[in-house]
Amino acid sequence: MSELDIHALETELNPEQLRAVMTIDGPILIIAGAGSRKTRVITYRIAHILDKGIPQSVILALTFPNKAARELQFTSDVLAVYKIANLFLDIKNWER
């Protein structure tokens, strides 16, 4: 299994984003404006959590806009290296 390149993340993410990625104890809530790369931060955090040996069965990631949910689902460039078995992604359409 490949590990996430933390040094590369230090140049790609701002300090708050990096802190969110590196925090693996307990839940976090990410609130930020449009285009601030929230979905990317969530994806990197999941990858980092998996790197630390935490089983995928205890990870829950929620995102509300449909666009972000689709982006999280298809951000395989980071998570594909983990060959995650039985990954469950459920995208609900909450728009009326």
Class computed from helices, strands and strand pairing: mainly alpha
Strand segment tally = 0
N-to-C SSE series? HHHHH
What is the mean predicted local confidence, pLDDT? 76
Oligomer: single chain
Summarize the topology.
Blueprint: H1 6-12, H2 15-22, H3 38-51, H4 66-73, H5 76-79
Helix pairs in contact: 2-3, 3-4
What does this protein look like?
With 96 residues, this protein is mainly alpha-helical. Helices cover 43% and strands 0% of the residues. The protein is built from five helices and no strands. The longest helix is centred in the middle third of the chain and has 14 residues, at 38-51. The chain is globular, with a radius of gyration of 13 Å. The protein starts with 5 loop residues before the first helix and ends in a 17-residue tail after the last helix. The mean pLDDT is 76.
Task: Characterize this entry briefly.
By secondary structure, the chain is mostly helical.
